[in-house]
Write a structure and sequence with these properties.
Length: 207
């Protein structure tokens, strides 16, 4: 399994533009994954009860650590071979990669005028759509503005009437509220006067 993983890492890197650099990245990612896998397994074991499962936990944890150590050692042994294979493939495909890059550059150069022409066609179509829509939008804007002006004109007398009614209603509300306020004020004054008369002897005695 470890050998298959390491060879897979090598074969994946061989197809990338810069094999040695990409291979280092893939190996680093594989190391990180294996380390995270080991830590996840240890965290799962840590949740088991030490009283009941201590021996099993210790045994499994040790097996995981041994496997990780063996895998790292095997990776170190296989790495020179993988590097050699990748370098050989890289050298063998150097001309092909150069040719592909040249083809891509040529393709980009060939496509550029077509892209410019396509942009011009799209802009032309958008201008046509705009030309057809613009009168409708202007008509809607003018109609909407006129409607708002009419609505404002209709609302002005209503607003003035409401303002007059609010003033009148406020006075009526104050008139209706006055007896209640007066009753409460009189009752409070009565209670305060009674409290004052009750407390006066104590105040004089305290003085």
């Amino acid at each position: 399994l470890a050998l298959a993983l390491l060879l897979a890492v090598g074969s994946q890197a061989a197809s990338l533009p810069d094999p040695p650099t990409q291979l280092a990245h893939v190996r680093a990612a594989a190391d990180l994954y294996l380390t995270q896998l080991k830590e996840s397994a240890n965290r799962a074991l840590a949740q088991l009860d030490d009283t009941e499962y201590k021996e099993i936990k210790d045994s499994v944890s040790q097996h995981i650590e041994n496997f990780h150590t063996q895998l790292k050692a095997l990776q170190a042994q296989v790495s020179p071979v993988t590097d050699s294979v990748v370098s050989t493939i890289s050298d063998a495909t150097a001309d092909l990669r150069t040719s592909l890059i040249a083809d891509l550059d040529q393709l980009k150069a060939d496509i550029e005028p077509k892209r410019v022409a396509l942009r011009a066609v799209i802009e032309k179509h958008l201008d046509e759509y705009k030309t057809e829509l613009e009168p409708i939008m202007k008509e809607y804007y003018v109609k909407h503005t006129n409607d708002m002006a009419v609505l404002k004109e209709k609302l002005e007398p209503v607003v003035e009437s409401l303002q007059a009614k609010v003033s009148t209603n406020l006075e009526e509300t104050k008139a209706a509220l006055a007896p209640i306020v007066e009753t409460v004020r009189a009752k409070l004054s009565e209670r305060l006067e009674a409290l004052k008369q009750l407390a006066t002897p104590y105040v004089h005695e305290y003085k």
